[in-house]
Specification:
Length: 82
């Protein structure tokens, strides 16, 4: 999988988690996600980290606005470390 395909898959997963709201991964966010690919973080682990963030996000109450990938970075890194 190329870095671009990896980013597209992360973007698609984030879109599904945001109930269809498309939040593009561009600029610094794109560099961040490319860094995950370069570090060797498997797509499945990155998606699991994003899911972990959304579990906490929805536990706070009703969803307010779509989530950007930047907010999920700590959970992705934690999932990779585990």
């Amino acid at each position: 999988m190329t870095t671009e395909e990896y980013c597209r898959e992360i973007e698609a997963h984030l879109c599904r988690k945001n109930d269809g709201h498309l939040i593009r991964i561009v600029g610094p966010s794109f560099e961040r996600v490319c860094g995950w690919a370069v570090q060797g973080i498997p797509l499945k682990i990155a998606c699991h980290g994003i899911d972990r963030y959304f579990v906490r996000y929805y536990a706070k109450g009703q969803r307010r606005r779509p989530v950007h990938i930047d907010f999920c970075e700590n959970d992705v890194m934690d999932a990779f470390d585990a």
